[in-house]
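Entry 0007
Protein: BED-type domain-containing protein
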Amino acid sequence: MMFKDLCDMGAVCNACNTFVRQSRKAGYTNLQAHLVRNHPGYDTVVRSCIKEKRIVSMDMFIDRHAHTTYQWMKLVVHKNCTLADVDDPTIRDAVRFDSIGSKTLKARMIAAVKLAELDMCAELKGEKYVLVFGRVRAFSGHFRRN
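Output (structure tokens):
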């Protein structure tokens, strides 16, 4: 279901169209390793495809690079890290993410903001809105949330 048989030398992954070398005599270890390494959550996708009698396709998976970028963005934003911390070998050893450089992460973060900005502008076109930043005091008083 996840692979198309091409020849005796291997198969093509239905999710990413990558050729994976695997001899028929060796079993399925390379194919399984490819799925685990490149397609996190493939087992739930396969189960849903079996239930719905659908074919597995590329759009059912999160891209590995997008997932890595999201993990690093989340760490930098939530833990208030600098982008230079991404290049720190100690931090890289402490996390289980794929390695990524600070320049690459910055470029991907800017690209993500531009995409989100386009969607937000289209959604809010013609609307009036105000930006409100958290923990801001106005007129020496505090705002309360009910």
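Curator remark: Residues 3-60 form one domain. The CA atoms of residues 69 and 105 lie 7 Å apart.
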